[in-house]
Design brief:
The complex is a heterodimer of chains A (724) and B (153). Chain A has 724 residues and is an alpha+beta fold. Chain A has 23 helices and 28 strands. With 153 residues, chain B is α+β, with helices and mostly antiparallel strands. The chains are: A alpha+beta (724), B alpha+beta (153).
């Protein structure tokens, strides 16, 4: 726990690094924490406290993070959990990202990673255990020194106390770290919590408002060069030949090398690398993806939606029930390819040193996928993962893009460093980032639902068409069952509306056009919530029922859905008069173990949709930091609104037409609605909050637009002009 | 050429057309100013030129001349400019990547408009994107900064 143990700790980390293949076994359904949590697991060993916590003689407490800080506030949440049990001085806490090492593997998935809105619940026990174990050891060390019974000691604010005697944690750290950690530990009951559940300000603010915070792109050291890579204009394209003469003539350019993904220009700084890259003359073999066209794909998706697919959910006899339906509602919904558009463009710094057993590969980057990247870097460098050190910098946004099973931006940077034989920072321009693939897939949903005499569904048929995120990844074998990628159908196949309809059939088609796709904040829920919550509104209208009342009837067995639905409706004043021209829409959705309802208050001027206010109710179980949960709800609304109003990537002749923020727009401050987040008090297990605020906003707005105009917008981004 | 940054004279040997952003980041090592788009669309690269907020990603270094460049590192000696204090108080940041640009834009606004209207705040900051969606707290923090005394706005 002392700084002096740092070497030991790092040695321990080095020697225990394992290969990635053995580690992926536990990685299963990250988007369904309820399933993971329900799995029977052997009682895990307690974590080694010194891997997670260091106490310096000056009482500074360094918390080592197993997860990456990408805006979600885990930099503050994990210290809260640890401090709750350690009983330490909050003002003396500092935080660091841990190096990549097996000890930091996700407690449910077995890989060091940040994703699936899992960080808080997956660490809820471990960081408290670390705090409690360390506190026990500090008490033991003090009791030994005083020659008293540890039971007679107590702690307060980083001090062990016995009668009138006091010793600080810093003073005790050296003796404490020589003790063997206990094999059992008792955690405080929730009624004794002092920090969990209290709004806590972020610990990373001072460095982030002064420019001191180090993001991957800020990595600098003597001898480090900057590289830009010219990649194929079409996915899957290859370099046929290239002429680097003009590029090499650019002042500051030091080398031009070919790598599997294209041609890399190495230079003293970004600008020279960019000018050099612009001067490259490359002849590409574009390959089969050169004919990709979004309009044609839409037609293909539509045709597929009318043929039988893989069964994602099935019950009863849909055909028979449909014949007995009083009325029928049919619709087709669609969402486009989307880029994550993190504010910090992708980048990765690599330094290769030594040879043979002394060879080392050092990586500096903002990543959500340390273990996977470590293995990928090792493979490219021809090293054992033990020889790869991954330094995690702050992430200037992640949203899933920095958790790539293919480790594209890391593997490529190692290729460049290897070919150029210098340490390099590969930086992606915004255009590279927008056109670089690993998108949220384009999806089309076709629905046909039969209603009974009471207006409620009695037959539900749904076809979903879109690329599988997991197809072709190492996770496919574990996570794609009977042709169904759970990430394609989550939120639809297991929707409470589908489950409440005895006769249902949800089918999936997963075409493979060759566009790299990936999880994008809220993954499958980013489309399923839009479809389900818009369509339920259609059913309510068809049944001539109030949208809230209609949902209440269908969600009668779903108490947590109902809880947030009712809270959001109440706080928004559902049914009460609004300013002239304002209209409301509502949506409720479960994702990542949490439940969110949102009411959007909208007006329409011409074809423009204005969002004035969003009332959000969230039930995320035990809430560790309400300030952070509220921020995630606000941020989720903004992220979802960018997609609802603007987000769309289109392909023509294999090329992505959009390139930067002028044609791939994000919500701006003047468009920001007033967002009110209401947190349902709960003693349920913690759920995720990083993604769960995103799914309901697009349907809430679309439903409000319907209320305002009578036009049902079934395609994202929402466009009134095209729907006329 | 000569460049005055955060009160210090620098002699840099770079092409005139090189954007100020890359001189700051890659030549002078002032990495607090961020690259986001390279075409003045996102505001992450915002610095002050004689006190005025500009997008350094599209500003050729050769056009800076004798004007004083202030970056986030030079906004205050101790990191406690009223805008920075307000940002911490209002718990604005999330990933933090856009925040140096947001802070610099807000500081430039308050220098000329110590008590801006809501619309003036939105207008001034509408060129600064935040993908995490901290806009609501940014608005609140600008308001809060107007109440904080003790700093040179």
């Amino acid at each position: 726990m002392n700084r002096t143990t740092d070497l030991t700790r790092r040695d321990f980390l080095k020697t225990s690094v394992g290969g990635a293949t053995g580690l992926v076994i536990g990685f299963s359904f990250p988007w369904r924490p309820s399933l993971v949590q329900a799995q029977e697991r052997p009682a895990p060993k307690l974590p080694p406290p010194d891997a997670f916590l260091q106490i310096a003689p000056d009482d500074t407490i360094t918390v080592l993070l197993s997860h990456s800080e990408m805006g979600q506030g885990i930099w503050t949440t994990l210290p809260i959990l640890l401090a709750e049990e350690l009983d330490c001085d909050w003002t003396k806490i500092r935080v660091e990202h841990a190096l990549a090492a097996p000890v930091y593997a996700h407690t449910a998935f077995g890989l060091q990673m940040t994703g699936g809105s899992t960080s808080t619940w997956s660490e809820f026990d471990r960081y408290r255990q670390v705090g409690a174990l360390a506190r026990q050891m500090l008490i033991q060390a003090a009791a030994k020194e005083w020659g008293v019974d540890p039971q007679s000691c107590r702690t307060e604010n980083s001090v062990v106390i016995h009668g009138n005697e006091k010793l600080s944690y810093g003073r005790l750290a050296d003796a404490a770290q020589k003790l063997t950690p206990s094999t059992s530990v008792k955690l405080k009951p929730s009624k004794e919590w002092k920090r969990i559940g209290k709004p806590t300000k972020r610990l990373d603010s001072p460095e982030k408002v002064t420019g001191r915070a180090q993001f991957g792109i800020d990595t600098r050291f003597p001898g480090l060069m900057t590289a830009l890579v010219a990649r194929a204009p079409v996915f899957g394209g290859k370099v046929k030949s290239f002429n680097a003469e003009k590029a090499k003539a650019v002042p500051g350019v030091t080398a031009v090398v070919q790598v599997p993904s294209g041609v890399a220009v190495i230079a003293q700084h970004f600008w020279a690398a960019k000018v050099g890259r612009d001067a490259l003359d490359i002849d590409w073999d574009l390959g089969p993806a050169a004919s990709l066209d979004t309009d044609k794909m839409r037609d293909e998706w539509r045709a597929l939606s009318q043929s039988p697919g893989a069964k994602a959910a099935a019950g009863g006899d849909v055909d028979a029930a449909m014949r007995g339906a009083r009325s029928k509602v049919e619709a087709e919904y669609e969402v486009p390819y989307l880029a994550h558009a993190t504010m910090e463009p992708l980048n990765c710094t690599v330094r290769l040193t030594g040879t043979g057993e002394q060879a080392q590969c050092e990586i500096w980057t903002g990543t959500q996928f340390q273990t996977v990247d470590q293995a990928a870097a090792a493979k490219v460098a021809g090293l054992d993962p033990k020889q790869v050190t991954v330094h995690t910098a702050f992430l200037g946004g992640g949203f899933g893009r920095r958790a790539n099973p293919a480790s594209d931006f890391v593997a490529e940077a190692v290729h460049v460093a290897k070919a150029a034989q210098v340490p390099v920072k590969v930086v992606w321009t915004r255009e590279d980032d927008t056109r670089g693939g690993y998108y949220r897939p384009m999806l089309l949903h076709r629905l046909s639902v039969g209603l009974g005499a009471d207006g409620l569904p009695i037959a539900w048929r749904q076809a979903i068409v879109g690329q599988s995120i997991l197809h072709g990844t190492p996770f496919e074998a574990l996570m794609v069952k009977d042709g169904v990628d759970a990430t394609s159908v989550e939120g639809a196949a297991n929707s409470p509306y589908v489950m409440a309809t005895a006769n249902h059939l949800v089918e999936l088609h997963s075409p493979t056009p060759g566009i790299p796709v990936l999880w994008w904040r809220s993954v499958g829920h980013s489309h399923s919530a839009f479809v389900m919550e818009s369509f339920i509104d259609e059913l309510a209208v068809k049944s001539k029922k109030d949208p809230v009342q209609y949902r209440r009837q269908l969600l009668v067995k779903n108490s947590r859905h109902l809880g947030v639905l009712n809270l959001a409706a109440e706080k928004a004043g559902w049914g009460k008069p609004l300013p002239k021209g304002h209209h409301r829409g509502i949506a409720v959705h479960e994702s990542f173990g949490s439940f969110v309802a949102q009411v959007a208050e909208v007006s329409v001027t011409g074809n423009q949709i204005n969002i004035h206010r969003v009332v959000c109710a969230v039930d995320c179980g035990i809430c560790v930091n309400p300030a952070s949960v509220a921020a995630q709800m606000e941020g989720g609304v903004v992220f979802g609104l960018s997609a609802a109003l603007y987000g769309e990537l289109t392909f023509k002749q294999g090329r992505v037409l959009q390139s930067n923020f002028h044609d791939y727009q994000l919500l701006r401050v003047h468009e920001m609605p007033k967002v009110e987040a209401h947190i349902v008090p709960s003693s349920e297990k913690p759920g995720g909050v990083g993604e769960t605020g995103v799914p309901p906003i697009a349907p809430a707005v679309a439903n409000a637009v319907f209320a305002a105009t009578g036009k049902r917008l079934r395609r994202l981004p929402l466009r009134l002009a095209e729907s006329a | 050429m000569k460049l005055r940054v955060n009160g210090k004279e620098h002699e840099v040997s770079v092409p005139e057309e090189m954007p100020l952003l890359w001189v700051l980041r890659d030549v002078l090592g002032l990495t607090g100013t961020k690259y986001g788009c390279g075409m003045a669309q996102c505001g992450a690269c915002t610095v002050h030129l004689d006190g005025e907020a500009i997008r350094s990603c599209v500003r050729p270094v050769g056009s800076v001349g004798s004007k004083a460049v202030t970056t986030i590192e030079g906004l205050s000696a101790d990191g406690l400019h009223p805008v920075q204090r307000a940002w911490i108080d209002a718990d604005v940041v999330q990933c933090g990547y856009c925040q140096p640009g947001q802070v610099m834009t807000a500081a430039a606004l308050l220098r000329v408009k110590p008590d801006p209207t809501d619309k003036e705040i939105d207008d001034a900051l509408s060129g600064n994107l935040c993908r995490c969606g901290t806009y609501q707290r940014i608005r609140a923090a600008v308001r809060r900064a107007t109440q904080i005394k003790g700093g040179a706005l």
